[in-house]
Amino acid sequence: MWQNFTSFSVDPFNLVFRSIIVYLSVLILLRLSGKRQMGQMSATEFVAVLLISNAVQNAMNGGDVSLAGGLLSAVVLIILSALISYLTYKSKFFSSMFEGTPTLLIHQGKIIYKNLHSERMNESELHILLRKQGMHNLNEIKTAILEADGTLSVTKAD
After folding, report:
1. What is the pTM of this model?
2. Could you say which architecture CATH assigns to the domain 103-156?
3. Cβ-defined contacts of 51-58 (< 8 Å, 24+)
4. Nearest-angstrom CA–CA distance, 69 and 54
5. CA–CA separation, 76 vs 84, rounded Å?
6. Percent helix, strand, coil in the chain (nearest 5)?
7. In angstroms, what CA-CA distances link 133 with 85, 97, 140?
8. Which of 46, 69, 147, 148 counts the most CB atoms within 10 A of its CB?
9. Do residues 105 and 119 make contact, with C-beta atoms less than 8 angstroms apart?
10. Digit-coded pLDDT (tens) for 104-127
11. In the chain, which ranges are E strands?
């Protein structure tokens, strides 16, 4: 019984490799989904993220259900998270790759439709976000920027 908790049923290097591949793959897939999805997650998107974690679990642990295997995978994920945090802090390249860049959606009260479409956002969704900021008229807005974390920053016109 205790063997299941104290020894690996899969080679530890295999667990490390699988954890790294799954972490980076899910990170890239979430990054490709767009910043709007990360900042304002709907119920369906939240459920998808929960199911993704369940779907990749077996790919990551390779069938190893030991305590040691679970802890090793957790350590690898935490180290990867810290490493990526450090890289994004130190490098503009890694910051834009992993965290994205802000996108100007409104300039001087005019919607920039090209940028809106590149963020896979429609005008109705933009107006919802603006109302949440207390803005009801485009003429009141100097700039509206969709930040890399998915939040909307609005600057009022003078």
Report:
1. 0.67
2. 2-Layer Sandwich (3.30)
3. 52/26, 56/22, 56/25, 56/26
4. 17
5. 12
6. 65, 10, 25
7. 29, 28, 12
8. 69
9. yes
10. 999 999 999 999 999 888 999 899
11. 103-107, 110-111, 141-146, 152-156
